[in-house]
Design goal:
This protein is an alpha/beta fold. The chain has helices at 9-16, 20-28, 35-48, 54-61, 77-92, 106-117, 132-141, 161-174, 190-205, 220-232, 243-255, 273-277, 289-305, and strands at 66-71, 96-101, 123-126, 144-147, 156-159, 179-184, 209-215, 237-240, 265-270, 283-286, 324-325, 329-332, 335-337.
Length: 352
Amino acid sequence: MEVGVAATIRDVARLAGVSPSTVSRALSLPGMVNAATRARVAAAVDQLGYEPNRAARGLITGRTGTIGLVVPDLANPFFAGVTKGVQARARRHDVSVFVADTDEDPAAEAGLVRALSKQVDGVILCSPRASNDELAAIAQDTTVVLVNRAAEGIPGVTYDNEGGMRQAVAHLVALGHQRIAWVGGPAKSWSTQHRGLGLRNAAEELRAKLAPVGNFAPTYEGGMAAADQVIATGATAVVAYNDLVAIGLLARLHARGLSVPGDLSVVGVDDIAMASMARPALTTVRLPKQEAGRIAVELLLTMLDDPESTAASAGADGELRGELHGELHGELHGELIVRDSTGPAPRTQPSD
């Protein structure tokens, strides 16, 4: 074979002493080839650096070698982090990723998934706003894995939102805060519901007062809009739906002449890069974003390889096995990162 010329399946067959069709079966349907022959083919592939043509492989397997990823807003660094994890793990499996952005429009989700399903083997749906019934209908049309959302019968990767919120409340109570405001995100967001539940449970357990101020866009502007209502609650601390909302709160509180954390402590969720660059640096519940993306790819590929699978397997390297349990579901835990936006409560706190 000439130097610089890519190896072909015939080159592999010649070196392994088998036919090209046997090489094809060994690579795409290894169970139909005996172990000794598979070993010879594998050695030849390694020696020649052979890379199977994706289109040709697709003719054999019926797979496109691509997956879809649908997110609510690529401008949100949380979803950018998940996307990086998806792409990195897909690349390891020689799979391409098509990314679609719903622009926080729940009505666009089903249409995007159905459009993608005609071009990909399966879809990862991140933080969907659709109802459980709508998700069940989507899952009937294509293989789907969820990220940051749980829905019965659909595999997914979630975060322990309630555990993360308990860490935040315990931190604030330890600093002396007795009244804590909560700025929720989109009303249809699964995370909004479960973070709110976690806050309520933790506040009750730790004897703090929780003051919800409503649902706001999961953006910097959403935080700006919520700030005056937070001040009106008389709370000495606030937990925001995400870091973007928390950073918006910081900006508006500064404009109102309030000191953070002197007058009001602020906690976010996600730990995006901007959290540590904010002034003051933001205390937040760090969520493993790229890890969620990697696990989602493993779940999706497991389903595609074995549609009847009910026990999760996290991939040949075993890296993710400890994170998966039950029926193709993974749960990741958050970690409170304490920075400068939280401090001791003011000595004088408002009474009921």
